[in-house]
Automatic annotation (TrEMBL):
Name of the protein in question: Decapping nuclease
Chemical reaction(s) catalysed: a 5'-end FAD-phospho-ribonucleoside in mRNA + H2O = a 5'-end phospho-ribonucleoside in mRNA + FAD + H(+); a 5'-end NAD(+)-phospho-ribonucleoside in snoRNA + H2O = a 5'-end phospho-ribonucleoside in snoRNA + NAD(+) + H(+); a 5'-end CoA-ribonucleoside in mRNA + H2O = 3'-dephospho-CoA + a 5'-end phospho-ribonucleoside in mRNA + H(+)
Function: Decapping enzyme for NAD-capped RNAs: specifically hydrolyzes the nicotinamide adenine dinucleotide (NAD) cap from a subset of RNAs by removing the entire NAD moiety from the 5'-end of an NAD-capped RNA.
Any Gene Ontology CC annotation: cytosol
CC cofactor: Mg(2+)
Keyword Hydrolase among record annotations: yes
InterPro entries: RAI1, RAI1-like_fam
Segments for region (Disordered): 54-79
Alphabetical keyword list: Hydrolase, Magnesium, Metal-binding, Nuclease, Nucleotide-binding, Nucleus, RNA-binding
One Gene Ontology molecular-function label: mRNA 5'-diphosphatase activity
Compositionally biased spans, kind Polar residues: 56-79
Catalytic activity, EC: 3.6.1.-
Keyword ATP-binding: no
């Protein structure tokens, strides 16, 4: 398991980035949740051994030098945080394709279906939404001490391998025909690193049979911020969920 860190000081590179092996060939896999352990238990041949300071990068031959600061990011496996390197035409992205869904109820229980999906309903031009409604008497606050990480997504993968398996493999195979398994917010943190000047982050990355599993690791600063949230901050966070409720209709 590799760890990627970003200290939000914008000093020209990801200043606290590192990659450290959490397990090697024949070793144990500590810190991986139960579902992930099931997914990769059949394979013990992979090892991640590179340790790098200053850049986010994949394993690289030892005789290959770190790219210079003026080098184009496309020509290396590093991720520089120099903004000027990315000031170019916006890339072309393909339309996302949904491969499946799952639902979580009010108690965070997993269901391998779309029972919690809702339709978007465009509000009136001048809506009168009471975003405070229910906060004091009906709101069930999520337990922030429970770190779900990739648990629910991995559980869905275990139940739907046939939808993700590479061609020519069986549904029971561990091979997945995808490059990344992560939440979109994690990729947002990674891709906006050159422009983030306030909040740092840490991501844990495990590469297994060609697929990269990316999960966030809570930093000490994030933990302190969470513990020191004011009542006003908590209520403002609730407003976003309430707005979503107003603009979504039941099935």
């Amino acid at each position: 398991m590799d760890k990627m860190q970003h200290r939000a000081d914008n000093t020209g590179s990801v200043s606290e980035a590192s990659m450290a092996s959490a397990f090697s060939k024949g070793g144990t896999m500590s810190g991986i949740n139960e579902q992930f352990s099931k997914l990769i238990a059949a394979d013990k041949s992979g090892s991640l051994t590179a340790r790098v300071k200053g850049t986010l990068q994949k394993n690289r031959p030892q005789n290959q030098s770190v790219p210079s600061r003026g080098q184009n990011p496309d020509s290396s496996l590093s991720l520089s945080t120099r903004r000027e390197l990315y000031e170019r035409d916006f890339p072309v992205y393909k339309q996302p394709v949904e491969v499946g869904c799952f639902s979580l109820d009010s108690e965070r229980r997993f269901f391998n279906d779309g029972r919690q999906m809702r339709y978007y309903v465009e509000p009136d031009r001048s809506p009168h939404f009471d975003l405070r409604d229910g906060y004091k008497d009906r709101f069930i606050k999520r337990d922030d001490s429970v770190k779900e990480k990739l648990d629910h997504m991995l559980r869905w993968i275990l139940a739907n391998r046939s939808k993700l398996s590479a061609r020519g493999t069986t549904a029971s195979s561990c091979d997945l025909d995808i490059d990344f398994v992560t939440w979109r917010g994690h990729l947002t943190k990674l891709l906006t690193a050159p422009y983030e000047t306030r909040e740092g982050w840490q991501l844990a990355v495990t590469r297994f049979r060609g697929t990269l599993y990316i999960s966030e690791v809570e930093t000490e600063a994030a933990r302190r911020d969470q513990e020191n949230r004011t009542e006003r901050h908590e209520e403002m966070m609730y407003w976003g969920y309430k707005f979503e409720q107003y603009t979504c209709a039941g099935m």
